[in-house]
């Protein structure tokens, strides 16, 4: 699958005041967008916990990024707005609009963090020259935030969604050590941000318990994902641990560094975060839809109860433990792989290259890895979840593939330049998933 460079950012300034207007140009520092992305991460972590094992983090980042994108794009006029028609005055400060939009959305959803958010907001506004441009930017940012909040009303957040499947062979059940109930089932029925329905790109079912592919999945994770006595190399163990934390936090940090290092302007920075985070949010929704629909058991259950799967190629080991603690929701599909597939494919489309050169840090291992190409990131993600003992390879591959389809949809329908890109004769090869 390829995407043309029509989606690539077009250099150049947005609409500006007339030559006769001697007022200084409105503030447009892209560092403000990067800073409020970091504030968003910190706010979500403070309210949910830094290691929250759900995909909620992507949803909140998606909401904030959508508002910031509209606030900036609506003033600079370079990119199509997200489900909104209200343009801002070209004399307004995109920087003031961006920080206001982020502040208001976070305040709407995380009121317990108001004191800290208000302090950050005051600091951000203090960096912007007082005057008409700032006031216009603040007013437009408020409207951009209010639009997203209204747009997401009655979207299914926190609705009671019951999981009632009986614990038969192949069916998910709470896993050791906590035996926690299914976490955030409502994510599987949440109204997407970009897709038209949670099941729009739902993949086909996982391998049948009686199949050779299922046996391969079980035996691979049993060997390579064991906490002790595994067949992993030291590098493979480090890879599993590297991606054992909060992927959304890793992506935010990596793309903040990318945006700064490549000197992206405020519109392109806001567009990048919107593309990454809104597609990631829909990847979480897609993953939870699939988890809820198929309810497939995790490797720890499959290995412990292999004598019930009617597959002669698997053998039970009641004492087997995975390297990582199994999250409290079903196996199929992998949320991590879906998020990576969606975020990187969409990012490659808007940036015009899959050679992203991302520096990705892991708090779990306190190390940083350089990923020159998105394909390598996707491969490591698929492998990591198997080597961590918490996903079957089929769930990872299906997750990455679903994420790529979300990215394709996002690139076809959103974040498009309003001015024609300069023809280059080149085409962008988008990242692929392992097969």
UniProtKB/TrEMBL annotation:
InterPro entries, per database record: PAP2/HPO_sf, V-haloperoxidase
Q: Per UniProt, which keywords does this protein have?
A: Signal
What Gene3D superfamilies does the database record attribute to this sequence? 1.10.606.20
Leader sequence range is: 1-19
**PANTHER family to which the protein is assigned, alphabetical:** PEROXIDASE-RELATED, PHOSPHATIDIC ACID PHOSPHATASE TYPE 2_HALOPEROXIDASE DOMAIN-CONTAINING PROTEIN
Q: What is the name of this protein?
A: Phosphatidic acid phosphatase type 2/haloperoxidase domain-containing protein
Species this chain originates from = Streptomyces agglomeratus
């Amino acid at each position: 699958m390829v995407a043309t460079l029509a989606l690539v950012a077009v250099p150049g300034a947005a609409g500006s005041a007339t030559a006769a207007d001697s007022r200084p140009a409105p503030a447009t520092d892209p560092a403000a967008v990067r800073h409020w992305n970091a504030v968003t991460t910190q706010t979500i972590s403070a309210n949910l916990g830094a290691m929250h094992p759900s995909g909620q983090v992507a949803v909140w980042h998606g909401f904030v990024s959508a508002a910031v994108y509209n606030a900036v794009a609506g003033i600079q006029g370079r990119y199509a707005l997200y489900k909104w028609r209200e343009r801002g005055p070209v004399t307004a400060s995109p920087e003031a609009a961006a920080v206001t939009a982020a502040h208001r959305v976070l305040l709407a959803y995380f009121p317990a963090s108001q004191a800290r958010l208000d302090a950050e907001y005051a600091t951000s506004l203090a960096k912007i020259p007082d005057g008409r441009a700032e006031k216009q930017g603040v007013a437009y940012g408020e409207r951009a935030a209010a639009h997203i909040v209204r747009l997401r009303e009655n979207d299914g957040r926190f609705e009671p969604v019951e999981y009632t499947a009986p614990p038969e062979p192949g069916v998910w059940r709470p896993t050791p050590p906590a035996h926690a109930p299914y976490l955030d089932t409502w994510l599987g029925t949440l109204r997407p941000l970009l897709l038209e329905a949670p099941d729009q790109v739902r993949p086909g079912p996982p391998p049948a318990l009686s199949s050779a592919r299922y046996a391969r999945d079980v035996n691979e994770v049993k060997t390579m994902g064991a906490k002790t006595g595994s067949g992993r190399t030291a590098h493979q163990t480090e890879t599993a641990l590297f991606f054992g934390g909060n992927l959304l936090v890793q992506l935010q940090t990596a793309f903040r560094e990318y945006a700064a290092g490549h000197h992206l302007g405020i519109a392109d920075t806001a567009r990048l975060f919107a593309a990454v985070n809104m597609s990631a949010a829909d990847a979480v929704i897609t993953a939870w839809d699939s988890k809820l629909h198929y309810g497939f058991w995790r490797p720890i259950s499959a290995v412990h109860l292999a004598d019930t799967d009617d597959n002669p190629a698997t053998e039970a080991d009641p004492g087997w433990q995975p390297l990582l603690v199994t999250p409290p929701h079903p196996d199929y599909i992998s949320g991590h792989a879906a998020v990576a597939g969606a975020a990187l494919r969409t990012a490659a489309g808007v940036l015009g290259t899959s050679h992203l050169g991302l520096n990705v840090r892991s708090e779990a291992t306190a190390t940083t890895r350089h990923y020159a190409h998105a394909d390598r990131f996707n491969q490591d993600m698929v492998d990591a979840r198997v080597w961590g003992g918490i996903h079957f390879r089929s769930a990872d591959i299906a997750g990455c593939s679903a994420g790529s389809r979300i990215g394709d949809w996002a690139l076809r329908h959103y974040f498009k330049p309003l001015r024609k890109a300069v023809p280059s004769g080149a085409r962008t090869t988008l990242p692929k998933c392992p097969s």
